[in-house]
Amino acid sequence: MKGYLIASYSTLFFILLSSCNVNKNKILPILGDRSTVTRIVDGKTTVDAIYKTIPTFRYVNQYGDSITNKNLDDKIYVADFFFTTCPSICPVMARNMLNVYNTYKSTGDVKILSYTIDPQHDSVPILKKYADKLNVNGNMWWFLRGRKDQTYMLGKSYLVSIEEKNPAGEYIHDGYFILVDKQKRIRGMYMGTKPEEVAKLVEDIKTLKEEYTNQATK
After folding, report:
1. 167 neighbors 174 (Cβ within 8 angstroms)
2. 5 membership: H or E segment, kind and range
3. N-term to C-term CA, the chain
4. Which among 23, 61, 75 has a CA at the least distance from the CA of 185?
5. pLDDT for residue 9
6. Residue range 160-169, pLDDT digits in tens
7. Average pLDDT over residues 179-197
8. Of 2.102.10.10, 2.60.40.10, 3.40.30.10, 3.30.390.50, which CATH number belongs to 53-217?
9. Per-position DSSP letters for 153-213, written without gaps between them
10. Which residue has the higher pLDDT, 55 or 7?
């Protein structure tokens, strides 16, 4: 019995060690359109993939500060689309996004961007009130307001769908949380209404952070 236990513990240790190595070496996929570029290096032909990135933008956050893509240089971030009067999925998404916020709000290299798709109603004071209700403070999670047409176009770059159902202002939008890396490339999409997918997002952010750490140590 004693020998069996020793063998079992040794096997368990090996499995755990192997799992750690697998997680350490895990690389998240890069999503979205891509093109290829052919190069000749040292006489050899190589084909490199060029992935589409999130384009430049300028918005205003809940504090009235101007936010552009430059504010996200060297940052990992999560983006989603919402509006403060949304009666259906947005409240659920906001509660689930709090898990991401509370996990990474002290790290400094992770941000959250929530773009309102109803800027006519969602003024800066209303966005601030919405953030306060969620107990969100500081500059880790920005609630952003800009031109509606700009936001709709930007949504396509994030691979999400946004529609205005009718002139009365009813909206239809995807409930995805989009993970974006430091090169502004999409590395994952997660249904923001499902806790299990949000939990995966939290883990994938950790994986992405480790990817950059490993690159820096090579």
Report:
1. no
2. helix 2-24
3. 45
4. 75
5. 34
6. 988 766 555 5
7. 97
8. 3.40.30.10
9. HHHHHTT--EEE-STT--EEE--EEEEE-TTS-EEEEEETT-HHHHHHHHHHHHHHHHHHH
10. 55
Q: What is the DSSP letter of 107?
A: T
Tokens linked to 119: 């800027």
Q: Which of 17-21, 100-104, 192-196 has the lowest mean pLDDT?
A: 17-21
Q: What is the pLDDT of residues 32-80, one digit of tens each?
A: 887 665 777 777 777 667 889 999 999 999 999 999 999 999 999 999 9
Contact 75, 161 (CB under 8 A): no
Strands 186-191 and 176-180: antiparallel
One-letter amino acid of 163: E
Kindly state the tokens that stand for 178.
């989009």
Phi, psi dihedrals of residue 115, rounded to the nearest 5°: -95, 125
CA pair distance 189, 105, nearest whole angstrom: 20
